[in-house]
Amino acid sequence: MPNLRLADLGAEITANVRAALAEDIGSGDITAQLIPAERLARAKIITREAATICGTAWVDEVFRQLDPRVQVTWHVADGERAMQDQTLFSLEGPARALLSGERSALNFLQLLSGVASRCREYADLVEGTAVQLLDTRKTLPGLRLAQKYAVTCGGCHNHRIGLYDAFLIKENHIAACGGIAQAVASARQIAPGRPVEVEVENLEELQQALDAGADIIMLDELDDDDMRTAVSLNAGRAKLEASGGVNKTTLRGIAETGVDYISIGTLTKDVKAIDLSMRLSL
């Protein structure tokens, strides 16, 4: 599946930010009203730890919606690595807007940079192999596209976006359809041209999926030896995706079995936000 592009996310970013500001500011920032409306200020945002940056467009949109007079000047771009204590961007404009937008802007930047940083760490571990690391649907509700874009900024890749753009036939689907061949045949009839992926748990099921003509076959919890055998049996007929039991210790060994993809839920679901700080000067 193709990776998300920032150019495709304009409406999504607007909606994400609108929801975040409504949640945080609601009927108005009463604390910011302590500051005279005409007061101008400057601020700089630094990272307290090394990170791969993502989320610049969401930050821009926060201040655009709050007060277009705020000027945002970036010193890094999405996908770039920042060092500890580096200034990421500067702000100049009405003090009220800078303070009201701080939390929402940093929430987006911290989360998405956390995803991008995790992905960069994992991508670096398989450098030199041909494997692609894929995300999953284990994302925060309402922020799936944002997180999946962050995955690409960290050097990993997008799997299907949701339940609508590709088939992923698992154990329960297979049982309900009466077998792998029947499930694949039904998928081809329902949505011709959509990718059809089948999850298998052993080499016998792999052969059934190959015979059925699956486009992608997910090898669920197979050990490295069985994955190498699967690569040999497959002989390039389908794309092979490893899933389950993937962590920083096992990742390189799985990549070296010759599978095409490794899907990793932790790229988006267990992410630690990057520690950022805003320093204001009036």
Which features characterize this protein?
four-stranded antiparallel beta sheet, single chain, 282 residues, Quinolinate_PRibosylTrfase_N, elongated, Quinolinate_PRibosylTrfase_C, NadC/ModD, alpha/beta, 12 strands, six-stranded parallel beta sheet, transferase
> Over the alpha carbons, how many angstroms does the gyration radius reach?
22 Å
What is the count of DSSP helices, taking H or I runs of 4+ residues?
Answer: 10
β-sheet strand percentage: 15-25%
What is the strand tally? 12
Please list the strands of the largest sheet in the order they lie side by side.
Answer: 6-11-10-9-8-7
Domain Quinolinate phosphoribosyl transferase C-terminal: 115-279
Family: Belongs to the NadC/ModD family.
Domain Quinolinate phosphoribosyl transferase N-terminal: 29-113
Function: Involved in the catabolism of quinolinic acid (QA).
Outline the secondary-structure elements.
Blueprint: H1 10-25, E1 40-47, E2 51-52, H2 56-66, E3 71-74, E4 81-82, E5 87-94, H3 95-125, E6 132-134, H4 144-153, E7 167-169, H5 171-177, H6 180-190, E8 196-200, H7 203-212, E9 216-220, H8 224-234, E10 239-243, H9 251-255, E11 261-263, H10 266-269, E12 276-281
Parallel strand pairs: 6-11, 7-8, 8-9, 9-10, 10-11
Antiparallel strand pairs: 1-5, 1-12, 2-4, 3-5
